[in-house]
Design goal:
Distance between the termini: 37 Å
Shape: globular
Structural class: alpha+beta
Number of strands: 14
């Protein structure tokens, strides 16, 4: 038996909790920005994905008007820092609702490093940084989707094998429902099936 949930008949927050409990796991964009007056901001956003390959564009969603969104609109730049397991406490701490103008880097004690192509700093301890310039924004109800063109990627060689980032070295964090977070756990490695192989398999005699 299924239970029906009608978003039109429910308040915003209960349906938000339902969505974020079933759209899982969600990767985390640990977004660093710089305000127009030079204050560095850092916040995790769990509505995050790749939007385009060529040109390379990533997206994150600001639910409401948060400092990350304001700073991107003011300066046109941001960095997506990879969120690994080992930085869980710092990542969670940067989600604190600090007052506008307070730097999470300073409050939480997170070391910065200078970005190559944009002004917002990178998280020094993060294994990957995607430096982005604003492509566009899209307002949807109470949220804004931010699209950024990746102009530079910096990857720690410690997570690379033959030039490729390895998942067992990256060890990404993910958001789940409620206050739950997820780690990689068991990794399944299976190639996509080509249609020719699918058809060939169907034509083989069954034992």
């Amino acid at each position: 038996m299924r239970i029906d949930f009608d978003p039109e008949a429910m308040d915003r927050y209960p349906f938000y909790k339902l969505l974020t409990s079933v759209v899982v796991p969600r990767p985390i964009a640990w977004v660093s920005t710089m305000s127009a007056d030079g204050t560095a901001n850092l916040a995790p956003h769990s509505f995050y994905s790749v939007s385009c390959v060529s040109p390379p564009i990533v997206q994150f969603t600001s639910v409401g008007r948060k400092d990350s969104l304001r700073n991107v609109e003011e300066t046109g730049e941001f960095v997506v820092n990879f969120a690994p397991e080992r930085l869980f406490e710092q990542i969670n701490a940067t989600a604190t609702d600090f007052p506008h103008g307070v730097s999470e880097f300073e409050e939480v004690g997170i070391e910065q490093e200078t970005s190559l192509r944009v002004k917002p700093p990178r998280v020094a301890a993060s294994p990957v940084a995607l430096e982005c310039v604003l492509h566009s924004t899209l307002g949807l109800g109470d949220s804004t989707v931010v699209f950024g063109r990746v102009v530079h990627a910096a990857v720690d060689d410690a997570v690379l094998s033959d030039g490729h980032p390895e998942i067992d070295r990256l060890k990404p964090l993910a958001r789940l429902g409620k206050n739950e977070w997820g780690t990689t756990g068991e990794v399944l490695d299976r190639a996509r099936i080509r249609y020719a192989d699918w058809e060939a398999g169907r034509s083989e005699p069954q034992g």
